[in-house]
């Protein structure tokens, strides 16, 4: 029944085709700096029919065949590749993704939980025991840095080590943890030799990381801070001192969740915003603050990689368009 609904050829998945873009998006895209690459956190949402896809496709069709059509959207010059967090991707999988997008397209790739989550988790995401490979350099190199660098090559935009929330009793051990992170980041130097334009970034989910020692570790290794807009972190204005301490440098930002939902609101946001076809909770305050950071970054000749989730405002393609308009208003026509 589902195949008859979603395909043209009696059950075989058909080619995914892009939607005809809104006419205003084409000149808007032309006005944005080449060093700004924006996109969404993933691309497999059927609810984007008419915005990104020409019609309704199944999630499976979009996951397997939708990336080429996604990359034809005028504003999408990047995409978040988060699925490797749950299961590391192989070189061949990265190559397959890279082959579907144009040369100027970039991927923002999230590191696997094996090296960024302090806990091994069971069904439902509940932590069961300490992860022995947390911040392990060898695991990061073998399962993330090398496969992504080899498979994506010049299309690798940013590697993001998103450190999951720490057990509460670890929050008093930040010096030890920052030393471990520092060691891990030192081992990303070989990536820079293979992909000199790629950015390495660290995103955290506990504000206790945001210390001078953390900044020193990032500076020493040429790593940037990933601006994580999420309920577990302070608002954007309170995170900016970290970016200022690293200035000048590239921007990596992942707008993951509307602050109204709090620290544990993913499921609530998903249920409230599905099928992700409209802006339910516009957040112009965060959007304008982010546009200001983007304008300052690209104005200084630095690259900016920004991905937005459906859980930010309800529909990430529309969020990207609204953010692009806010950036254009600050920088003027190209």
UniProtKB/TrEMBL annotation:
Q: Which Gene3D superfamilies match?
A: Protein of unknown function UPF0759
Parts of the chain that traverse the membrane? none
Q: Give the residues annotated as coiled coil.
A: none
Q: Specify the domain of life of the species encoding this protein.
A: Bacteria
In residue numbers, the region (Disordered) covers 1-25
Signal sequence segment = none
Q: Name one Pfam family in it.
A: DUF72
PANTHER family the record matches: DUF72 DOMAIN-CONTAINING PROTEIN (PTHR30348:SF4), UNCHARACTERIZED PROTEIN YECE (PTHR30348)
UniProt protein name: DUF72 domain-containing protein
- Species of origin: Alloalcanivorax balearicus MACL04
């Amino acid at each position: 029944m589902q195949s008859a609904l979603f395909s043209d050829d009696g059950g075989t998945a058909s080619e995914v085709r892009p939607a005809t873009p809104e006419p205003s998006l084409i000149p808007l895209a032309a006005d944005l700096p080449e060093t700004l690459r924006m996109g969404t956190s993933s691309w497999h949402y059927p609810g984007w029919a008419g915005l990104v896809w020409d019609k309704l496709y199944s999630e499976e069709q979009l996951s397997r065949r939708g990336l080429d059509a996604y990359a034809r959207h005028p504003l999408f010059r990047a995409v978040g590749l988060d699925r490797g967090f749950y299961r590391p991707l192989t070189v061949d999988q990265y190559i397959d993704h890279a082959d579907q997008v144009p040369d100027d397209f970039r991927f923002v790739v999230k590191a696997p939980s094996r090296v960024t989550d302090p806990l091994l988790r069971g069904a439902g995401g509940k932590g069961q025991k300490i992860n022995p490979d947390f911040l392990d350099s060898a695991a990061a190199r073998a399962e993330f840095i090398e496969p992504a660098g080899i498979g994506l090559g010049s299309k690798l935009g940013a590697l993001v080590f998103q450190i999951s929330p720490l057990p509460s009793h670890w929050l008093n051990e930040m010096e030890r943890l920052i030393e471990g992170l520092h060691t891990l980041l030192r081992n990303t130097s070989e990536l820079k030799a293979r992909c000199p334009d790629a950015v390495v970034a660290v995103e955290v989910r506990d504000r206790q990381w945001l210390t001078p020692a953390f900044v020193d570790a990032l500076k020493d290794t040429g790593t940037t801070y990933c601006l994580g807009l999420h309920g577990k972190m302070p608002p954007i204005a309170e995170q900016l001192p970290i970016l200022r301490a690293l200035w000048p440098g590239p921007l990596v930002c992942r707008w993951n969740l509307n602050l109204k939902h709090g620290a544990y609101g993913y499921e609530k946001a998903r249920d409230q915003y599905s099928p992700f076809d409209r802006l339910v909770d516009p957040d112009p305050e965060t959007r304008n603050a982010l546009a200001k950071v983007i304008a300052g970054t690209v104005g200084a000749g630095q690259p900016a990689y920004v991905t937005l989730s459906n859980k930010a405002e309800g529909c990430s393609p529309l969020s990207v368009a609204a953010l692009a308009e806010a950036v254009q208003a600050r920088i003027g026509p190209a």
